[in-house]
Amino acid sequence: MTKLRQKIAKRDHGKNTAMSKSTRADKIEFSKLPPSQRGAPGAGGVVDVTQEIERVTIESKRERYQKEQEERELHESKDEQYYKEVAPGISINPALSLVNRQQVVVTSGTDAADVSQANELAVRFGLDYVPLHQLQTMPQQLFTYQLALAVASGRLSLNDLELYEGKSGGIRRKMTCEVTLDFTSGELFYKIKERTFAKSPMVRSVRCPEVPATVLDVTGGLGKDAWVIASFGSKVTVVERNPILHYFLECALDKARKNPATKDIAARITLIKADSVEYLCSIINREPSEQPDVIYMDPMYLSKSDSAKQARALSKKDIRAIRKLVGGDRESKLLFALSKRIAQKRIVWKKPKTVAPIIGIDTHYSSSDTRFDVFITATKKVVNPANGAETTTDPRSSSSNNSSGNNGLDNKAKGEAMSCIH
């Protein structure tokens, strides 16, 4: 009797599955029909708005997945547009150093000077220029942009774009999460002037224990962390590959160099437009005296977090807009593996507090939502508990005396770096 019941249940389950597949197929075929063939309500073909929204969403996700798959295949096929080998076994994606024309648009009001500046920026970055009044009312079917590079009264800003319903009922578009950069005024200028960062976790993590002479920031972004570090006397090299963020930093530093209150700090900052992985591979063979004391990393983490606390740590307006521009973290482990062969004293890796630390971290400094993991690369003294004898270890010894070529990457460094690529 039990076996018979199992057979009946299995048969009924098969029928239900077949009916479900048939119904789903009918819905798909119905959604593919043009509106003229779907019929009117009550005539055998009711148009469901919810189904239409789901259909468009699914198609959009499918197109995005196909595009990502095509880019991945092009990179694996070593297409020059998506693949560039910077060292044996280590490659970068050159497309990440370009601005996506379908993602960013340049806009401005009607002021002649603003229009002229906006058009110059559009030519510089290879982007479209759309006047602000058209940007606000452009039909969604023709609109692919996610960010707007806006010029207003000569002031440049990066803005997120958000839809809302106008008073007349129509769909309109507005700019939110404005991102600007100015080292000569605002909250950052005041805090630097009052030296409120002296006991901050970031500054404490960089000190070793004195202020380092040279710091390399391999994840430049808006350069605010680099500016704080330089305010304490360190010479900071900032590497940024995104053309728009590099332009923001370039303009802010030029303005700071002309201001008597900030010119000394600006003079200690060197800005380089390059991919950080490629840059690290290019300097790995330099003499130790030419290498940075500290390498600072602040990768852009994805917005999807594992906890509410991490979501709050990633919710700043400028971070949300920049995340859309540059995407999430892709290469932090590879940067860390290369940095261990270059940094003379330590590596500082900034992370949300809820992200697990990497194995081998020597110490860390924390704020309410952020943690600065410190990996000491200078020579360490190790005491043998058995006999009390002291020995020294140098984490960089495998690369400091390397002269085998391959851009300074010995077998151990290549192994660590290659293990992080995938």
Overview of the structural elements:
The protein has 422 residues and is of the alpha/beta class. It folds into 2 domains: 80 residues, Rossmann fold (3-Layer(aba) Sandwich), CATH 3.40.50; 236 residues, Rossmann fold. It is 41% helix and 20% strand. Strands 10-9-8-11-12-14-13 form a 7-stranded mixed sheet, sandwiched between helices. Strands 4-3-5-6-7 form a 5-stranded mixed sheet. A two-stranded antiparallel ribbon has the order 1-2. Strand 13 and strand 14 form a beta hairpin. Helix 11 packs parallel to helix 14 and helix 14 runs antiparallel to helix 16. The radius of gyration is 27 Å and the shape is globular. The protein starts with a helix and ends with a helix. The C terminus is likely disordered.
Helices, by number, come to 16
Task: Give the proportion of residues in helices.
Answer: 40-55%
Instruction: Characterize the overall form.
Output: globular
Beta-strand segment tally: 16
> What's the architecture of the largest domain in CATH terms?
3-Layer(aba) Sandwich
How far apart are the termini? 54 Å
Could you name the CATH class of the largest domain?
Alpha Beta
Estimated share of beta-strand residues? 15-25%
Low-confidence stretches: 15-47, 303-315, 398-408, 418-422
Please name the CATH topology of the largest domain. Rossmann fold
Number of domains: 2
Q: Kindly name the structural category.
A: alpha/beta
Spatial strand sequence of the major β-sheet: 10-9-8-11-12-14-13
Overall mean pLDDT stands at 78
CATH superfamily of the largest domain: Vaccinia Virus protein VP39
Q: Whole-number radius of gyration?
A: 27 Å
Q: Please describe the biggest sheet, giving its number of strands, its sense, and whether it closes into a barrel.
A: 7 strands, mixed
